Amino acid sequence: MTNNRKHERLSSKGLDIHCKVHFTTDIDLLNISNSGALISLVKPLHIGQKYTLHIRHDEKEISLTGVVVWERLVGSKTIEDGEIVPLYKAGIKFDSILTKKGTELISFIETSFLPKEFRARLSGIRVEVSDSDSAISEDNKKFDVLKISSSGLLLETAPQMAVGSKHNMEINLQAEKEPIKFIGKVASSRKIPGRDPNVYEAGIEIEEMSEENRARLEELIASLKPADKEEDNNQTD
Question: How far apart are CA 94 and CA 75, in angstroms?
Protein backbone atom coordinates (compact mmCIF):
# COMPACT_ATOMS: atom_id res chain seq x y z
CA MET A 1 0.00 0.00 0.00
CA THR A 2 1.31 3.43 -0.95
CA ASN A 3 1.79 5.92 1.91
CA ASN A 4 0.39 9.26 0.76
CA ARG A 5 1.16 11.18 3.96
CA LYS A 6 3.06 14.43 3.42
CA HIS A 7 4.70 14.14 6.84
CA GLU A 8 6.03 11.01 8.48
CA ARG A 9 4.24 10.08 11.70
CA LEU A 10 6.70 9.16 14.44
CA SER A 11 5.84 6.88 17.33
CA SER A 12 5.55 8.61 20.71
CA LYS A 13 3.85 5.76 22.56
CA GLY A 14 5.18 5.29 26.09
CA LEU A 15 7.05 8.62 26.12
CA ASP A 16 4.63 10.36 28.53
CA ILE A 17 3.48 12.85 25.88
CA HIS A 18 -0.14 13.88 26.32
CA CYS A 19 -2.62 16.08 24.50
CA LYS A 20 -5.09 18.16 26.46
CA VAL A 21 -8.33 18.70 24.53
CA HIS A 22 -10.63 21.58 25.43
CA PHE A 23 -14.22 20.44 24.91
CA THR A 24 -15.94 23.80 24.49
CA THR A 25 -19.55 24.77 25.21
CA ASP A 26 -21.08 28.10 24.23
CA ILE A 27 -22.37 30.13 27.20
CA ASP A 28 -24.11 33.40 28.01
CA LEU A 29 -21.84 35.57 30.17
CA LEU A 30 -24.25 37.37 32.53
CA ASN A 31 -21.81 39.40 34.61
CA ILE A 32 -18.13 39.52 35.52
CA SER A 33 -15.80 41.03 38.12
CA ASN A 34 -12.08 40.84 38.82
CA SER A 35 -12.67 37.69 40.91
CA GLY A 36 -15.38 35.74 39.12
CA ALA A 37 -18.26 35.49 36.67
CA LEU A 38 -21.89 34.41 36.43
CA ILE A 39 -22.77 32.32 33.37
CA SER A 40 -25.72 30.43 31.94
CA LEU A 41 -25.50 27.38 29.68
CA VAL A 42 -27.45 24.33 28.50
CA LYS A 43 -25.32 21.58 30.06
CA PRO A 44 -24.41 20.86 33.68
CA LEU A 45 -20.92 21.56 35.00
CA HIS A 46 -19.21 19.93 37.98
CA ILE A 47 -18.90 21.89 41.22
CA GLY A 48 -15.25 22.03 42.33
CA GLN A 49 -13.92 21.26 38.83
CA LYS A 50 -11.63 23.64 36.95
CA TYR A 51 -12.70 25.13 33.60
CA THR A 52 -11.39 27.78 31.22
CA LEU A 53 -13.65 30.72 30.41
CA HIS A 54 -13.09 32.24 26.95
CA ILE A 55 -14.51 35.77 26.63
CA ARG A 56 -14.67 37.68 23.35
CA HIS A 57 -15.99 41.20 22.74
CA ASP A 58 -15.42 43.05 19.46
CA GLU A 59 -11.77 42.21 18.64
CA LYS A 60 -10.69 41.67 22.26
CA GLU A 61 -10.35 38.20 23.78
CA ILE A 62 -9.15 36.72 27.07
CA SER A 63 -9.10 33.22 28.57
CA LEU A 64 -9.20 32.67 32.33
CA THR A 65 -9.24 29.54 34.46
CA GLY A 66 -11.59 29.18 37.38
CA VAL A 67 -13.48 26.74 39.58
CA VAL A 68 -17.25 26.20 39.61
CA VAL A 69 -18.34 27.17 43.14
CA TRP A 70 -22.09 26.74 42.63
CA GLU A 71 -24.59 25.68 40.00
CA ARG A 72 -28.35 25.36 39.76
CA LEU A 73 -31.01 24.37 37.25
CA VAL A 74 -33.04 27.52 36.52
CA GLY A 75 -35.40 26.51 33.71
CA SER A 76 -35.32 25.46 30.06
CA LYS A 77 -34.37 26.90 26.69
CA THR A 78 -35.38 26.24 23.09
CA ILE A 79 -32.32 25.81 20.85
CA GLU A 80 -32.03 26.32 17.07
CA ASP A 81 -33.46 22.94 16.00
CA GLY A 82 -36.52 23.48 18.23
CA GLU A 83 -35.38 21.08 20.96
CA ILE A 84 -36.14 22.15 24.54
CA VAL A 85 -33.09 21.68 26.78
CA PRO A 86 -32.36 22.40 30.47
CA LEU A 87 -30.87 25.81 31.35
CA TYR A 88 -28.30 26.15 34.14
CA LYS A 89 -26.64 29.07 35.93
CA ALA A 90 -23.19 28.71 37.49
CA GLY A 91 -20.79 30.84 39.49
CA ILE A 92 -17.10 30.75 38.50
CA LYS A 93 -14.31 31.86 40.85
CA PHE A 94 -11.18 32.83 38.92
CA ASP A 95 -7.68 31.58 39.74
CA SER A 96 -4.67 33.82 40.40
CA ILE A 97 -6.43 37.16 40.03
CA LEU A 98 -3.47 39.10 41.46
CA THR A 99 -1.12 37.84 38.75
CA LYS A 100 -0.66 39.12 35.20
CA LYS A 101 -3.94 37.45 34.24
CA GLY A 102 -5.74 39.54 36.85
CA THR A 103 -4.32 42.73 35.36
CA GLU A 104 -5.39 41.61 31.89
CA LEU A 105 -8.91 40.90 33.16
CA ILE A 106 -9.29 44.32 34.78
CA SER A 107 -8.09 45.99 31.59
CA PHE A 108 -10.46 43.85 29.51
CA ILE A 109 -13.46 44.76 31.69
CA GLU A 110 -12.55 48.45 31.62
CA THR A 111 -12.24 48.68 27.84
CA SER A 112 -15.07 46.30 26.93
CA PHE A 113 -17.93 46.75 29.37
CA LEU A 114 -17.40 49.41 32.05
CA PRO A 115 -18.62 53.03 31.69
CA LYS A 116 -15.80 55.59 31.87
CA GLU A 117 -16.99 57.06 35.18
CA PHE A 118 -16.35 53.71 36.94
CA ARG A 119 -12.95 52.82 35.47
CA ALA A 120 -10.89 54.49 38.19
CA ARG A 121 -12.54 52.36 40.92
CA LEU A 122 -13.00 48.99 39.24
CA SER A 123 -11.92 46.69 42.09
CA GLY A 124 -14.91 44.86 43.57
CA ILE A 125 -17.41 46.02 40.93
CA ARG A 126 -19.40 43.30 39.16
CA VAL A 127 -20.28 44.39 35.63
CA GLU A 128 -23.44 43.36 33.77
CA VAL A 129 -22.42 42.02 30.36
CA SER A 130 -24.11 42.10 26.97
CA ASP A 131 -22.98 41.61 23.37
CA SER A 132 -20.13 39.21 24.16
CA ASP A 133 -19.25 35.92 22.48
CA SER A 134 -18.19 33.53 25.22
CA ALA A 135 -17.56 29.84 25.84
CA ILE A 136 -16.36 27.53 28.58
CA SER A 137 -14.10 24.49 28.19
CA GLU A 138 -13.24 21.51 30.36
CA ASP A 139 -9.60 21.29 31.46
CA ASN A 140 -9.50 17.68 32.64
CA LYS A 141 -9.33 15.75 29.35
CA LYS A 142 -5.80 14.51 28.65
CA PHE A 143 -5.13 11.78 26.09
CA ASP A 144 -2.01 9.77 25.26
CA VAL A 145 -0.25 10.76 22.03
CA LEU A 146 0.51 7.55 20.11
CA LYS A 147 2.02 9.11 16.99
CA ILE A 148 2.96 12.63 15.96
CA SER A 149 3.95 14.50 12.80
CA SER A 150 4.22 18.07 11.53
CA SER A 151 0.61 17.96 10.38
CA GLY A 152 -1.18 15.96 13.05
CA LEU A 153 -1.37 13.43 15.86
CA LEU A 154 -2.86 10.05 16.67
CA LEU A 155 -4.51 10.03 20.10
CA GLU A 156 -5.88 7.29 22.33
CA THR A 157 -9.19 8.66 23.61
CA ALA A 158 -12.12 7.80 25.81
CA PRO A 159 -14.85 8.70 25.11
CA GLN A 160 -15.00 8.80 21.30
CA MET A 161 -14.45 12.21 19.70
CA ALA A 162 -16.83 13.44 17.00
CA VAL A 163 -15.32 13.34 13.51
CA GLY A 164 -15.21 16.85 12.05
CA SER A 165 -15.24 18.61 15.42
CA LYS A 166 -12.60 21.24 16.15
CA HIS A 167 -11.00 21.91 19.51
CA ASN A 168 -8.31 23.99 21.15
CA MET A 169 -5.57 21.49 22.04
CA GLU A 170 -2.26 21.44 23.92
CA ILE A 171 0.61 18.97 23.66
CA ASN A 172 1.96 18.53 27.17
CA LEU A 173 5.59 17.47 27.54
CA GLN A 174 6.99 16.33 30.86
CA ALA A 175 10.17 18.39 30.48
CA GLU A 176 8.46 21.52 29.13
CA LYS A 177 6.82 24.24 31.19
CA GLU A 178 4.67 25.61 28.38
CA PRO A 179 2.45 23.33 26.26
CA ILE A 180 2.43 23.40 22.45
CA LYS A 181 -0.93 24.98 21.58
CA PHE A 182 -2.97 24.61 18.39
CA ILE A 183 -6.46 24.16 16.94
CA GLY A 184 -7.05 20.58 15.87
CA LYS A 185 -9.74 18.89 13.77
CA VAL A 186 -10.83 15.29 14.35
CA ALA A 187 -10.25 13.62 10.98
CA SER A 188 -10.98 10.02 12.02
CA SER A 189 -11.95 7.94 15.02
CA ARG A 190 -12.08 4.15 15.35
CA LYS A 191 -12.66 1.75 18.20
CA ILE A 192 -9.59 -0.19 19.33
CA PRO A 193 -10.55 -3.91 19.30
CA GLY A 194 -10.39 -5.89 22.51
CA ARG A 195 -10.43 -2.95 24.94
CA ASP A 196 -12.96 -2.80 27.78
CA PRO A 197 -14.19 -0.19 28.53
CA ASN A 198 -14.16 1.17 24.98
CA VAL A 199 -11.08 3.10 23.85
CA TYR A 200 -10.60 4.84 20.50
CA GLU A 201 -7.84 6.02 18.19
CA ALA A 202 -8.48 9.54 16.92
CA GLY A 203 -6.59 11.08 14.01
CA ILE A 204 -6.11 14.82 14.55
CA GLU A 205 -5.24 17.34 11.84
CA ILE A 206 -3.48 20.54 12.93
CA GLU A 207 -5.58 23.38 11.51
CA GLU A 208 -4.05 26.47 13.15
CA MET A 209 -0.76 26.92 15.01
CA SER A 210 1.40 29.97 15.74
CA GLU A 211 4.96 30.19 14.40
CA GLU A 212 6.34 29.88 17.94
CA ASN A 213 4.36 26.71 18.67
CA ARG A 214 5.22 25.35 15.20
CA ALA A 215 8.93 25.75 15.92
CA ARG A 216 8.58 23.90 19.23
CA LEU A 217 6.63 21.10 17.54
CA GLU A 218 9.41 20.69 14.96
CA GLU A 219 11.96 20.48 17.79
CA LEU A 220 9.91 17.72 19.42
CA ILE A 221 9.66 15.80 16.15
CA ALA A 222 13.40 16.15 15.54
CA SER A 223 14.06 14.70 19.01
CA LEU A 224 12.00 11.60 18.14
CA LYS A 225 13.58 10.86 14.75
CA PRO A 226 16.91 9.27 15.82
CA ALA A 227 15.23 6.65 18.02
CA ASP A 228 12.66 5.96 15.32
CA LYS A 229 15.31 5.47 12.63
CA GLU A 230 17.42 3.25 14.87
CA GLU A 231 14.41 1.00 15.45
CA ASP A 232 13.82 0.71 11.69
CA ASN A 233 17.49 -0.22 11.13
CA ASN A 234 17.31 -2.95 13.77
CA GLN A 235 14.27 -4.45 12.08
CA THR A 236 16.10 -4.46 8.72
CA ASP A 237 19.17 -6.31 10.06
Answer: 26
